[in-house]
Design a protein that fits this description.
The chain is mostly helical. It has one domain. 70% of the residues lie in helices and 0% in strands. The chain is built from four helices and no strands. The longest helix is centred in the first third of the chain and has 14 residues. It is globular, with a radius of gyration of 11 Å.
Length: 57
C-alpha cells in the first residue's frame, strides 16, 4: 500500500476544517485516519507549524 504524503499547507487546512465541521467529518472528507489527525494536532499544539513540517525528501 502506498502512503499519502501530506504537505504543510494540506495539514493546516485539515486542522482548520476540523474546527468548522468536526474532526470525524474532516477526516472522512480528506481521507485521513483519526490517529494521524490527533498526532498532527498534538504536534501543532506543542510546536506550532514547525511540528508539522515535512521531514522526508
Amino acid at each position: 500500500m502506498k502512503y499519502k504524503k501530506w504537505t504543510l499547507d494540506q495539514k493546516l487546512e485539515i486542522l482548520a476544517t476540523s474546527e468548522e465541521i468536526g474532526i470525524v467529518e474532516a477526516c472522512r472528507k480528506y481521507g485521513v485516519s483519526t490517529g494521524t489527525f490527533y498526532s498532527w494536532r498534538k504536534k501543532f499544539d506543542h510546536q506550532g507549524e514547525a511540528g508539522l513540517k515535512v521531514t522526508y525528501d
